[in-house]
Amino acid sequence: MKLLRELLDWVYSITIAFALALVINAFLFQPTRVQGSSMEPTLENNNYLFVSKISHTLGQLPDYSDIVIIDSRVLRERSWKDDISDPLNTYLAVTKVINDSDHHIWVKRVIGKPGDTLEFKDGKVYRNGTALDEPYVKEAMQYASAQKIVVPENKVFVMGDNRNNSKDSRYIGPVPANHVLGRVVLKI
């Protein structure tokens, strides 16, 4: 009887710890790992990051130049179930328990916010007619477009720092605010 009670106490403690860790990862802070070279030279492949999810939880838009993690499936609606399952899948992939072949969580930099007009010419990004000072980019951007992009309400425009080797808003379009999952606060 004493052994059973002790076993149940352990199961209860482990369950509470797991639930608390899940809530923290889903709504407050999440560790993740960079996969790929799209954020070079700022972030390199396999860098570990800590992401604050507080702005996502509170529904706040990120600031210009913030490095954020996004759900790149911009045409798909997100729900609270995604907020629970994504950190768990990321943790299992980082620890190599599972092979995360989906790769829908991307790390990017915020370039435009709602109402901004963006242009891409002369190897630079122009926001509202002014060339951005971007000392963090890897090299001059090869991409150019005659089309001006106006960032819609409740969306942001994100790009990788390695502009010539990055899938970002130039390809998937502006990212809905609820697809911005958090802001990078620490790199290891």
TrEMBL record:
Q: Name one GO biological process term.
A: signal peptide processing
- Give the location in the cell: Cell membrane; Membrane
Q: Give start and end of each Peptidase S26 domain.
A: 8-186
Q: Does the keyword Transmembrane apply?
A: yes
Supply the EC number(s): 3.4.21.89
Q: Where is the signal peptide?
A: none
Per the record, what is one GO cellular component? plasma membrane
List the active-site residues. Answer: 38, 108
Record InterPro entries? LexA/Signal_pep-like_sf, Pept_S26A_signal_pept_1, Pept_S26A_signal_pept_1_CS, Pept_S26A_signal_pept_1_Lys-AS, Pept_S26A_signal_pept_1_Ser-AS, Peptidase_S26
Stated membrane topology is: Single-pass type II membrane protein
Concerning PROSITE patterns, the annotation shows: SPASE_I_1, SPASE_I_2, SPASE_I_3
Q: Which GO terms of the molecular function aspect are on file?
A: serine-type endopeptidase activity; signal peptidase activity
Record carries keyword Flavoprotein: no
User: Which residue spans traverse the membrane?
Assistant: 7-29
SUPFAM superfamilies per the UniProt record, alphabetical:
LexA/Signal peptidase (SSF51306)
Name the chemical reaction catalysed here.
Cleavage of hydrophobic, N-terminal signal or leader sequences from secreted and periplasmic proteins
Q: What is its main location?
A: membrane
Which UniProt keyword terms apply here? Answer: Hydrolase, Membrane, Protease, Transmembrane, Transmembrane helix
Which PANTHER family does this one have? CHLOROPLAST PROCESSING PEPTIDASE (PTHR43390:SF1), SIGNAL PEPTIDASE I (PTHR43390)
Family, per the entry? Belongs to the peptidase S26 family.
- Name it: Signal peptidase I
**Which organism is this protein's natural source?**
Methylomusa anaerophila
What is the gene name?
sipT_1
